[in-house]
Amino acid sequence: MPLIDTPKSPLVPKLKGLHLFGFDGAPCSQRVSFTLAEKGFKRARSVRWNDDSAGACVAPPGTYIFRPVSLIKKEHLTPEYAALQPNMVVPVLVHDGQAVIESMDIVDYLDRLVTTPALVPSDADAAALMYELIELGKKLHVSVRYVSFHWGLGRLGRIGREDEARIAQLESADSPEQLLAFYKRYNRDAIDEDTYLGHLRALEDGWGAQEARFVADGREFLTGNSLSRADILWAAMVLRIFECGYPFAARFPRLNAWFDHVRARPGFQAGVLAPNQTMHRVFRFKAAVERLLGGGLARVATR
Ligand SMILES: N[C@@H](CCC(=O)N[C@@H](CS)C(=O)NCC(=O)O)C(=O)O
Fold it and tell me: Residue 92 is inside which H or E element, if any?
């Protein structure tokens, strides 16, 4: 069952209907906005993330209010946001005054809230594969972080000393995200190339396993012939690494065809691509220039 959290934030009990606290360029947030779109919810409007005025607190039925938390402005590294999400990451979903954190728990919550289209396959083996791929995808999310910071964000991914000090103050030692440990090394260029390459290889292994399954039986989606929660997680992951310039079409053609198929869905267009056009173009432009110069992620892709 999804985890219903009880955050300290005074904003949560005021919110009626569905409110998504997220960042449109972040894969974890895209998992949720994709799910919301697949379930037929429209983004009613966006308000300042911490807006508690009466007009901003009620999302009409069939819609959700988007509350953008800028990872660029580091709004997630503030005491006010930490009172909502103690691990200081996006997304958070609040529904009628109850908060759910952890993106895949939110997907689970939404899938139970609106049961059609179902995002768990009816076949037991396919469902078991879906849960396996979700666990693998969560594990690989760490690798997505390393690869997209190194080959996508570069120096822009660094945070200032004050932000680092704030995380040190706010993050609990047992946070699953371990932001401080990552940023301390990332900010000081203390992560070696082999570590980054190791994360890229882990991702390639994961994609390779999916490629083999597509080749073996021509399935339409990762777990069979209908879209499942695993496709939602993996499509957001592939989008991010595609944006960073990974040559999926050449290395994993069947996985790439699946990605094109998912990408063409109205839910992916409305929930993921439409709200994120600018960042998408900037990433793709940077990757194209790097490829022209013979560098970037395309140069280190091995398969
Ligand atoms: N386990 C969390 C992970 C969330 C996560 O990693 N969010 C990223 C964006 S995809 C984030 O907020 N990162 C903030 C940062 O890197 O400073 C979930 O699935 O919700």
Answer: strand 92-95
